[in-house]
Amino acid sequence: MTTIADIRTQAEAKMKQSLAAFQNNLTKIRTGRANPALLDTVHVEYYGSQVPLSQVANVSLLDSRTISVQPWEKGMGAKIEKAIRESDLGLNPASMGDLIRVPMPPMSEERRKEMTKLVRTEGEQAKVAMRNLRRDANEGVKKLVKDKLASEDDQKRAEGDVQKITDRFIAEIDKLVAAKEAEVLAV
C-alpha cells in the first residue's frame, strides 16, 4: 500500500534523476572553453560497431582551449579524427603523430547568444519535467484521499511538502542555468 511519505520520496527521487539528466545535457552545450565531456556524444566505428569515443581513446584537456584524444590502438587515429569532424559539434581535429588535438574555435557573439537561448530552453524543459512530477505526486495524494486512505488535511500538508521540494529543485535549475549562461558568455 502506498503512503503519502512514499509518494513524496518517489517524487523527490524522480526530481533528482531529472536534475541529473539536465546537468548532463548542460555539459554537452558548448562554451568557449574546452571540456572533454563535449566529445561524449561522438561514436567511432570499432570492429564493425559504433562505440563511444571514450571506449577507444583517452580524452583529456591539453589547455583551456584544446582537447587531446589519445587512441589506445595505432590504427584508430584516422577513424577517430573522421568521427569528430563528422559530428555536429563543428570541431576540426588535427593529428600530431598518435595524438589528436581538438582545438575549440572561438565563438562569435551571435553564436554565444544562440547558446544562451539553448541553455534557457533546456532549463525550461527541466522545469516542466519537475512540474509534471509535482502534478503526478499530487494526483497520487488525491487518489489516497479519494480512496479514504488519507484525510484532506494530510492532502494539504503533502501538497505543501511536494511544492517545497519542487521549488528547491527549480531554484537549483535556475542556478545551473545562470552559471552555464555566464560560462557561455565569458570570452
Q: In the CATH scheme, what's the topology name of the largest domain?
A: Topoisomerase I, Chain A, domain 4
Q: Report, as a whole number of angstroms, the end-to-end distance.
A: 55 Å
N-to-C SSE string, H for helix and E for strand: HEEEEHEEHH
Number of domains: 2
Give the DSSP E fraction (strand runs of 2 or more residues): 15-25%
Helical proportion, percent range: 55-70%
Q: Within the largest sheet, what's the order of strands? A: 3-4-6-5
Structural class, from helix and strand content? alpha+beta
CATH secondary-structure class of the largest domain: Mainly Alpha
What value does the average pLDDT take?
88
Main sheet, how many strands, which sense, barrel? Answer: 4 strands, antiparallel
CATH superfamily of the largest domain: Ribosome-recycling factor
Q: Strand tally, please?
A: 6
The gross shape turns out to be elongated
Put simply, the count of helices is: 4
